Amino acid sequence: MKKILYLTFVIFSFSIYINMALATETNDSCYKKIADTWFYIDEALSNIDAASFQTINSCYAKDKNHVYYEKDIIINADTLSFQPINIFYSKDKNHVFFKKQIITNANPFSFKPLNTHYSIDNNSCYYYDYYSNKAYLIEGCDPKTLKPLNTPYAKDNKKAYYLGKYLEVKDVDTFRLNKTGETYAEDKYNYYIAGERKESKKSMHERVKGKIVIKKEDNGKAYYVSPTKKAIFYLGRPADAFEVMRQQGIGISNEDLQKIPNGSSKLNDKDINMKFAEKQKGKIFIQTQSRGEAWYINPSDAKRYYLGRPADAFKVMRNLGLGISNNDFLDL
Asked: Where is the signal peptide (predicted)?
């Protein structure tokens, strides 16, 4: 009995060895040939001319009669001029193909994918829709200025797009991705989620008025944003910062100043009035009943910070400054 089992095992192992020896796998693992039969993964290809069949890459192959995407014939593909562009797109002398689909009117000589989903030729823009598994023309799109922002979002010099469809935005120039997630975007006026306009947002000036902003992408240049008018002031060197803060200062009595908590002191003043302090955020005050001392009311905590000498003012500016990107700075 043991001899029979052993003999069976030897025969089985030998048959596997023979099949492996007969199997011709291409460098691309999707196609393989076993004996005289070609397979795509594990499915036999019965509609091919086996004698002339050759693989192009992991997704494409051809014989003397047809070109194939995976296991299917690409209708009207020219076998002599056919060439893949990437794993999704290919072309011949007459057509551009998305997988096995002809992209109507696409120019094979100028066609170029911009990313996985957006592509262009000299005249038009195209989008590959993951859900329908098709590529289609984007109506009214400018191929010369189209810029994909990520997989779903793109824009040209006049319009924005989500999943290849026109997206009405209020300001194309400032339209950009939002860091919240892939389907989030914004312009200077609104937020957009999954291609739909959501709530309006405060202007950048409204969001940072009264604050000291520091341009992170421009050598840390600092600016004071006026809390009362749409104006910004470059702070530059310590002396410049001190002068700007003096010029923008508003007179205040000692009594009113005492209503605003001192950010440099841990003592709780009995005269503090937070309702009054909240209304003064971002302002610079000059004590008119004293020696003209200057104070900055930080919008983040409604506390006052003494500006003192130029070096003191510059230190306050750096410590309380808010980093801002170049894009957001342009919206001020």
From this structure: 1-23
